[in-house]
Amino acid sequence: MRSIKKKKFVLVSFFILWGFINSEYLAETQKNSIINLFCIESIKVEMSKANLVYDEKIAMETCDCYLREFLNSTSHQNSISKCKLETKKKFNL
């Protein structure tokens, strides 16, 4: 009898833990997606202002750079500046 209760406890604990881990991952994915959407829209606007044709590859590279820098504790503004510079060099803009 004790063995069945112990197995149920372990099983329930596992599912609760799995739920917490999964919900944190889902929240992180959604946050990154929202940041990514804003980033891409910002690049579209900036490229339009500079009379450049929007290129999805440029936008994705720049936003990946921004997210990587920002998540590595670089400030928002420093991330933008660094990634703009890298993109300009890489794509000869």
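(ticket continues) Second input and output from the same batch:
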Amino acid sequence: MPDRIYIKRGDSLALDCTAWLTPPKGADAGVSRDLSVWAPECQMRHAQTGMKVKMTVIVGDPLMSGRFVISARADETSKWPTGCWHADIQFTDMDTVKSTDTFIIQVLEDITT
């Protein structure tokens, strides 16, 4: 079952992420990816309506940490229909595309307006 992230409609969203190298067999794991050559993108799709939303991706120091943030402003999430959204992160360099496992963003109705 995919990981699930909960957010209330109209709230800000910021997901801190780190890209890790997939080491060859027998190699050391835990090395963050150099993002100077890999461009991360994130898109999510509503499970029922098919509506697609491209998320903002901000890369920190691309050479050092492999860290980036996926975000959406409150005014953006306020327009999202409630329900289950499927998302993944795609990394692209000049000739290679790699995607993460799918994860779920569950958008809930906001109580306080």
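Agent notes: Residues 74-77 form the longest helix (4 residues). The domain at 4-21+31-108 is CATH 2.60.40.10 (Immunoglobulin-like). Closing as not reproducible unless the customer responds.
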